[in-house]
Structures are given as C-alpha cells and as structure tokens.
Amino acid sequence: MTADRAPDTAPVLDVRDLSVRFRMRGGNDIAAVSGARFSVAPGECLALVGESGCGKSVLASALLGLLPANAATTGSALLGGDTDLLTAGERTLARTVRGRRIGLVPQSPAAHLTPVRTVRAQLEEALRELTGARGSDLPKAALAAAARASFPEGHLDRYPHELSGGLAQRAATALALIGDAPLLLADEPTTGLDRDLVERTVDELRRHTDTGRALLIITHDLAAAERVADRVAVMYAGRIVEIADAEDFFQAPGPRHPYARGLLAALPERDFAPIPGMPPELGALPEGCAFAARCGHADDRCTAERPAFRADLACHHAPTGRTHPLKEAADA
Ligand SMILES: Nc1ncnc2c1ncn2[C@@H]1O[C@H](COP(=O)(O)OP(=O)(O)OP(=O)(O)O)[C@@H](O)[C@H]1O
Ligand code: NI
C-alpha cells in the first residue's frame, strides 16, 4: 500500500516539531508533546500508538484547536498544504476545519454528542450541514450514515445518555464519517467494542482512505493498528520515538526502538512479557532518553543525552539511520 504511493504526493497533514506544554500553577510545566514530526499522505492510514498518558490525545487536540487555555503550542501542522492548524485561529477552525476538513472521532464520544438531541436528529443535522441533503432525502441518508458505523437502526431515537459506551462510540463514528473530510482523526475509535465490532469499525474507517482521503488513528489496540495502518508512529513520554512501515513493524524485521519492541512483546498473543517499570512523569522528564530507565539496552549515553529523531527513529543505538540496531546486536 505504502509502496504504491507516488513519492511526490503532497501530504494531507504535515506536522513539524509540534510541542505542547501545559503551564501549571507552581511553575512545574507538563511537556505533553515534544517535537512531534510526521505526515499523512493521501490514501494513507497512520496509526499513532503508545501507552496511556503518553500524549496522543493532546496531540490530536492541538491539531483541532481544542486545547485548554493553559496549553502553549509550538511548531506547525499544515493541512492540505495551505492551512497551519496551529496558527489558524478559532474562527477558521470552527468554520472550515472541524467536521469539514478534519472529521473527528473523539476519545470520549459521550461528551461530544449533544445531550438533548437524539442520535437521528444529530445525524440529520450533520448531513444537512455537511452534505447539503434536504427534506425527504434526510431520513434515508441518516440510516445509511448509521449503518456505516454499525449503529443499530432501532436505537436511532435514543438520547446520548441512553446509549452504552459502545453505542455512543458508534454514534460518534457515524457522525465523523459524514462529510467525507480529507482527513479523519479517530482517537481510540474502538473503545468498548468487542473484537468483531472493532474489526468492522476499523475496516469502515479504512474505507475512508479508498478515495485518497487520509486517516490518523490513535489507538492502544495494536491488533487494530496492524489491521488498518500503512505506517505506525510510536509515542513515548510525549515524543514520537519511531515511525515504521506497518508490515516491517508488525511482521519482519519488527520495530527498531526498544520501547516499540517491548510494546509488541507485551501482547498476550506474543510473549505476554510486560515492559518493567513505569513511564516518567511528563512534568519531570529525565535529561536523556525518557525510556532509558526501562530499557535493557541503555548505556551511559542514553541517560545523559536525549536521542534526536532521525530517519524515523529516536534511539542512540541506531546512529546510522535505517539499520536495525537490536537485530544487529543480536546477530553479532
Ligand atoms: N488540561 C491539561 N492540563 C494539564 N495536563 C494535561 C491536560 N490534559 C492532558 N494533560 C496531561 O497530558 C498527558 C498526555 O495526556 P493524553 O490524554 O494526551 O494521553 P493519551 O496518550 O491520549 O492517553 P490515553 O491512551 O489514556 O488516552 C497526561 O499526562 C495528562 O495528564
Ligand atoms: Ni487519549
């Protein structure tokens, strides 16, 4: 899939050195995202993975202008080659970006659905606004929109508080798919769904990319990521530590970063061996590599000096780019 991509295709989203700091009372700032750099091409699905609290949702909120007032953002995030999402301003984001140029499946769907309106009413409103559907076309279009996200027809007249977590998730996904935005940003779109529905949902999200649209999916479900992604970006303690082709990552030769290898090894269907220790506090990050304290490969340099993100990897054990440091070490 990735190999078929024309090399000169301009990215739908191009994020450069994105950082988000939360200013806290007492001066102990939280570095929620640091120096994130990635792009998503037309027709591509990029999965952003990493443990809870590593900054995935903050990154997504930064792209949509949905951060709270105590957040300070630097860097750039170019949408469609012409709009820097970080400087665009609320008016532009509200009028032309959110819902129209970027569809969002939010992490807490219940909080994003309008509490006083039924799912059907919300779908019809989004259809009117984003597709121009009118009158007698609306009911049929609402049914079709619900079906895309496997939302059962019999529940369309429920209010958000009458929905289970999984149903609220599907309602939010149905809403996000309306309008066929050039970029779909799905933050944990499969929470609360059983495996069968997880697969149907991610397959539907994937279909969004069939016509050159892009998908950025945030998930800690690595099986779901493997199912849909062309490339995988791994985040740890606010930093992207590796970006890899999904096939290389999940099959052979496997991830290059020790943290990413640990994530895969922790899966029940693999070694079921959790990474020892805990990630550092984002308000008190160590000077060197944030993963050093948990890494079996760490040496003095790792604790002293933070590895730069080069050739899609931030690890001192790969100074020359795309070679596979851990594999080489094992072969030696
Ligand atoms: N408004 C805020 N003020 C201060 N810190 C915040 C704020 N919002 C988020 N954070 C912190 O930013 C960090 C990253 O949070 P984020 O929600 O992005 O994690 P995540 O990777 O999406 O995790 P999960 O997988 O659990 O959704 C966390 O340490 C969180 O406590
Ligand atoms: Ni999150």
UniProtKB/TrEMBL annotation:
It is found in: Cell membrane. Keywords: ATP-binding, Cell membrane, Ion transport, Membrane, Nickel, Nickel transport, Nucleotide-binding, Translocase, Transport. One of its GO terms (cellular component) is plasma membrane. CDD domains: ABC_NikE_OppD_transporters (cd03257). It is an enzyme of class 7 (translocase). Gene3D superfamilies: P-loop containing nucleotide triphosphate hydrolases. Its EC number is 7.2.2.11. One of its GO terms (biological process) is peptide transport. It catalyses: Ni(2+)(out) + ATP + H2O = Ni(2+)(in) + ADP + phosphate + H(+). GO terms for molecular function: ABC-type nickel transporter activity; ATP binding; ATP hydrolysis activity. PROSITE patterns: ABC_TRANSPORTER_2. Residues 15-262 form the ABC transporter domain. It is a peripheral membrane protein. InterPro entries: AAA+_ATPase (IPR003593), ABC_Ni/Peptide_Import (IPR050388), ABC_transporter-like_ATP-bd (IPR003439), Oligopep_ABC_C (IPR013563), P-loop_NTPase (IPR027417). NCBIfam families: oligo_HPY. The complex is composed of two ATP-binding proteins (NikD and NikE), two transmembrane proteins (NikB and NikC) and a solute-binding protein (NikA). Belongs to the ABC transporter superfamily. This is Nickel import system ATP-binding protein NikD. It comes from Streptomyces violaceoruber.
